[in-house]
């Protein structure tokens, strides 16, 4: 089945899909042409608000745009660049965890709360203590514990940190060095803060050794977590090598054994995704730059069915 462009009326990217109240809600970033010059740190990605889309039939249903659910002007600590976000439900409240730059040019993670999945969301006055970098995914496990996965290099600033502390000089591992890993932290019961210091998310090969920095399948950004048949599937973007990959573990912290490529490279510099089950079928939400003629900062959200083999391996797909 061919992938579906979900919302051709506008440019959106980084779709975080969740099922709430028997309906799929997609929380994307909102691209626009700001006029900023292209650079490797993503200065041309000047997203300034979030929308939410919803539908009740993934491949054929009408898509509803619920409008702006949070604007950077409403976030006291954030100046610009509202990048990826995700939403989790707890006790009837909906918590949007998002990334944005503060007034010192540093990416932080923030929280905004709503009574409904379509918002509007009210932001907290300060970012999450001890947060840094970008691309949060908030995952609620079967026991109700909520974990936040995050991190991205280059413009995502992960290379400026080691052991949760800022470095004086950035360090990008090379060659056979261990790569920069994603991070994970369990959230507090009120979903407002980290309940612990973030831990590294290790992706290892079949012998338990971390994939090296020069492996084209190492982590770059776009963490996502889902469960399938009791296993934890950590998926991510490889950034400059242009794949979506996954690794499998036995608990939310890992380590995660590399499993393979989910999606071959798309039109555009990279892609960003989410994976969700709805009405007994699995789906991959992602984006590309086909409608904007490969303008990398004007992306469009797509979805396509996702399948596993009998051993639980995700079958590799190619977007058209």
UniProtKB/TrEMBL annotation:
Lineage: superkingdom: Bacteria
One Gene Ontology MF term: xylan 1,4-beta-xylosidase activity
EC top class, as a word: hydrolase
Keyword Hydrolase: yes
Enzyme Commission identifier(s): 3.2.1.37
Any GO BP annotation: xylan catabolic process
Annotated site, Important for catalytic activity, responsible for pKa modulation of the active site Glu and correct orientation of both the proton donor and substrate, chain positions: 135
Hydrolase in keyword set: yes
Pfam families, per the entry: Glyco_hydro_43
Keywords: Carbohydrate metabolism, Glycosidase, Hydrolase, Polysaccharide degradation, Xylan degradation
Signal sequence range: none
Family, similarity comment: Belongs to the glycosyl hydrolase 43 family.
Protein name: Glycosyl hydrolase, family 43
Gene: xynB
